[in-house]
Design goal:
Five copies of one chain form a homopentamer.
Chain A: E1 2-13, E2 23-30, E3 41-45, E4 54-59, E5 76-86
Parallel strand pairs in A: 3-5
Antiparallel strand pairs in A: 1-2, 1-4, 2-3, 4-5
Chain lengths: 87, 87, 87, 87, 87
């Protein structure tokens, strides 16, 4: 999983029916130092994260688990809001 | 998921029978600023996207969900047309 | 999926029994402009592609679909020969 | 799988219920020479690894195996502590 | 799949029980020219490969196929020893 900051929202015509009602957030992966690393991506949100918050997310099939039993076609999903990082 | 712009079409001899009738589009991933990022790729289209449109797509097994119950061998699929990106 | 050119063949002692009889080709991913992008890789071929041909391939679990019901341990597979790319 | 060093811990509001009680560690992938390679990431720990230890981890769906039958939404997991690397 | 050279062995405290008895080798991906490309990684070996040999390996879920029905948590596996590469 990676750390990220929520930087925006994305609205799509939910052409794929199983995406109906799924919140899509634009996130920027960050290092533990909070420096941006890599490219922004769109992730499904199931935890109610807001713009500016630090979250962590999973990639791949696991991103669809919180939406089961619906088969949501997502490959990235926010699964928690970060309370603390201790290094 | 990532944002992308549809930049062309690809026609293949559908040697794999399960690809018969699947629309294949050439897409260029973009950043929220619309700058191209990374390499173009071929994605299956199930939403009727056209050349020049901004879409978002999934990678991996999830790309085949819209075509179920047929097992389409695709690893990238367009799942929506972008209405708005708010950062 | 990505575009690629077939650049060679690979012969292996088929230590994994499920690979017996599977044709393995060396492919070089290419951009729509036909410029090489990234590293060559080995892909399973189920479409009878020949050296020098332009193909497109899938990565991941989907690469094994054409060989079902045998569980072939492959993570890249050629699924079509490119007829035309229109940009 | 890759080698890594445990460099910290991460505490999250376990918004995804299936993550409750799962230890999350911050790890830095390393080369056999112990030089850092690539970006830090967050991995689920099922082996009781401590900060400073050398571990190896898996990415993808396999990362959730140690937690079965719970479907934990993780895409990286520590599966062993390194005793020796012989090159 | 990618080509690689076996460069060492890794011994771990098999904290994950399903890894017990699985041989873990350190491999360096190589190009067809035999030049090293990218970072070394740890792969499960089911073909009896030795240090110095050229092999090819799969990434992802397919890496666990040779060990079925045990669910081994591995994301890279050697599936053959290279006899010849023809370009």
């Amino acid at each position: 999983m990676q750390l990220a900051r929520v930087i925006g929202t994305v609205v799509v015509t939910p052409k794929d029916g199983n995406l109906h009602g799924v919140t899509l957030l634009l996130i920027q992966p960050i290092a533990p130092s909070r420096t941006p690393v890599g490219k922004p991506l769109v992730a499904a949100d199931s935890v109610g994260a807001g713009v500016g918050e630090e979250v962590f997310f999973v990639r791949g099939k696991e991103a669809s688990f919180p939406f089961h039993p619906v088969d949501v076609p997502v490959d990235a999903g926010i699964v928690g809001v970060v309370d603390a990082i201790d290094t």
